[in-house]
Amino acid sequence: MIQNFYLPSFSPDELEKSDAEMVIYNFCKFLKRVENSKISTPWINPDTLEEQIITLNTGHILQALLGSPRIPSNISCGIMTFDHVSNGLTTINTCAPSISFSNLKLIKTYSRFEESLLLVVVGAHGFGIV
């Protein structure tokens, strides 16, 4: 569902396209692990200031990527881009749905990808309300 919503924008360079395809593979693997309740993370509830362990669900991912716990019916797709130069963090735009993956050399390995995307998801406005 989520992976089909985002259309990738590939570089014409074959090596860069290969890196982007690996990141897409990791993104799909991440989403499948969330679907199967396999990813948990510590989180401090801002209301109670208590630390708790949260198992991610699809609503958490949608809240982070789209600003809503469900895919909007009036938007047909989002864009997925790949910054092959920057060493920054992955960025999300919820107004014009897009994901820009950065630091591709690092996030080609799944463990680093998961770590990077967890920062985005847990840091998103509204995390923990779904």
Write a compact overview of the structure shown:
The chain is 40% helix and 19% strand. With 130 residues, the chain is an alpha/beta fold.
Question: Could you please describe the fold and organization of this structure?
Answer:
The chain is an alpha/beta fold and 130 residues long. It has one domain: Hect, E3 ligase catalytic domain (Hect, E3 ligase catalytic fold, 2-Layer Sandwich). Helices cover 40% and strands 19% of the residues. It has a 4-stranded mixed beta sheet. It is globular, with a radius of gyration of 15 Å.
N-to-C order of helices and strands: HEHEEHEEEHH
| Rg measurement, Å | 15 Å
Unreliable stretches: none
- Give me the side-by-side strand order of the main sheet: 1-4-6-5
CATH architecture: 2-Layer Sandwich
CATH class: Alpha Beta
Sheet with most strands: 4 strands, mixed
Tell me the number of helical segments per DSSP (H or I, 4 or more residues long).
Answer: 5
Strand content: 15-25%
Helix content: 40-55%
Distance between the termini: 18 Å
CATH superfamily: Hect, E3 ligase catalytic domain
Count of distinct structural domains:
1
Count of individual beta strands: 6
CATH topology: Hect, E3 ligase catalytic fold
